[in-house]
From TrEMBL:
Domain Ion transport: residue ranges: 1-159
Main location: membrane
One function term, GO molecular function aspect: voltage-gated sodium channel activity
Protein name: Sodium channel
Transmembrane helix as UniProt keyword: yes
Gene3D superfamilies: 1.10.287.70, Voltage-gated potassium channels. Chain C (1.20.120.350)
InterPro entries: Ion_trans_dom (IPR005821), VGCC_Ca_Na (IPR043203), Volt_channel_dom_sf (IPR027359)
Subcellular location: Membrane
Amino acid sequence: WNIFDFIIVALSLLELGLEGVQGLSVLRSFRLLRVFKLAKSWPTLNLLISIMGRTMGALGNLIFVLCIIIFIFAVMGMQLFGKNYFDNVDKFPGGEMPRWNFINFMHSFMIVFRVLCGEWIESMWDCMLVGDWSCIPFFLATVVIGNLVVLNLFLALLLS
């Protein structure tokens, strides 16, 4: 722990020496690492930190599965609805393409990520404006499969 304290103090002194330089507020965040020293005297925090450390390997697998799910739904959305956005751009207010669309993979990926975060209504209405009712099963499948699979995998990870 003495080496840990030395590193924290050295970074703090470095920050004080470089006070006029912009963008070094990141060094202040290293002071927050001192909280981990409490784990020695606080058994519950020690238990939580050890559980988090043991699950880091399996968390990589969970992130990999999540990326595959997002990739699959992004490609499906791009193939099913991407052309509709080009053909019906005049249906949007002002005749402008909405920011959230299925035109290319990046935008499709961002929409699927947004759906998994719970903000899917606006994107679904835009999709229904240019397409038809086939957007509803796609968005519902994305919400159900994405959220439930990720939730179940995460709970299984925590319980193991």
